[in-house]
Amino acid sequence: MLITKRNFLATAAMLAFAASASAADMIGNCEVTGAKGSIPLAAPATAGQFTVAVSLPAPIWWNGDTPESVKDGMEYCMAAEMAWRAGYNNLTVMNVGWDALIAGQTSGFDLAMSEISITDERKAVHDFSVPYFNSDIGVLARADTPVDEKSIKTSKVGVQQATTGAAYVTDKLGITDVQVYNDLGEMTAALRAGQIDAVVTDTSIVLAEEVATASASKVVGQYKTGETYGAIYPKGNANNATIDKIIQSMIDDGTIRKLGDKYLAAAWGKDPASVPYFNP
CA 158, CA 78: separation in Å to the nearest integer? Predict the structure, then answer.
């Protein structure tokens, strides 16, 4: 077909519209696929925006060390999809301290997603979403000095304060040589520096660290706990049931499974079920 100036301009306009439409279906580097505004919030924590709290760093789940630098990751893209279905074009990320988050000392967000295990103790402080991920507790060690089911009991073990892994190490495993850290980055740095022999926390988290260290550290085992992750909601907030509907819709239509395939399975390079289970 002969390309005339008129045809060229019409084609350019169509391409511009297509590019604009494509851009409108992205939040950060996440492609959003649901119907925008299909499950709107009555009143967000901050007018005109959807705000999600997280305790960084959280590699693979939130790819970046600051709220400004995070543009994708498993939970980030979940939150982006939730914002879109609630009717927003973007997502506001708030970085908070883990201890303060779990203790209910933070505010100003619509929900918090930070690989948070649902427990009865935490339910006394927060409302939780429907579960969206199953997680056991893994053991991470340096590849050149691994531990096993027996030797871990007499090893120096690092845990993150106020996590289910910390409680499991002392209450269930009876380990006494325990070093407590404020955040994940500090704890894994201590392992790399040889200050501790192993890290015990969620299998999903330690698998991400194995990848991040190019296998200089290795997930040597895990304990079956039956834990699940959920989002934290402000206690009694009017939007909690609505956000639950959004998350459930993402479970039902396969969105969360697809994000798991993209960000978790691909990044870990292995099925978490392939990690051997230790006896407590």
Answer: 29
Tokens 């927003």 map to which residue? 88
Phi, psi (5° rounding) for residue 220?
A: -95, -15
Question: CB neighbours (10 Å) of residue 238?
Answer: 10
34-133+228-268: which CATH number, 3.40.630.10, 3.20.20.100, 3.30.470.10, 3.40.190.10?
3.40.190.10
CATH topology agreement for domains 34-133+228-268 and 135-227:
yes
Measured CA angle at 122 (ends 219, 60), to 5 deg: 35
**Region for 276 from its dihedrals, namely left if φ exceeds 0, alpha if ψ lies in -120 to 50, beta otherwise:** beta
In the chain, where are the structural domains located?
Answer: 34-133+228-268, 135-227
* Interval 249-268: pLDDT, tens: 999 999 999 999 899 887 88
Phi and psi, residue 112, nearest 5°:
-120, 135
Q: Dihedral through CA 153, CA 157, CA 160, CA 165, nearest 10? A: -20
Cut 0.85: pTM above it: no
Q: Which helix (H) or strand (E) holds 195?
A: none
Q: Which residue do the tokens 């845990």 mark?
A: 159
Instruction: Convert the pLDDT of each residue in 62-120 to its tens digit.
Output: 999 999 999 999 999 999 999 999 999 999 999 999 999 999 999 999 999 999 999 99
- Residue 68 C-alpha from the chain's centroid: 16
Q: 267 vs 209, which has greater pLDDT? A: 209
From CA 141, how far away is CA 139, in angstroms rounded?
Answer: 7
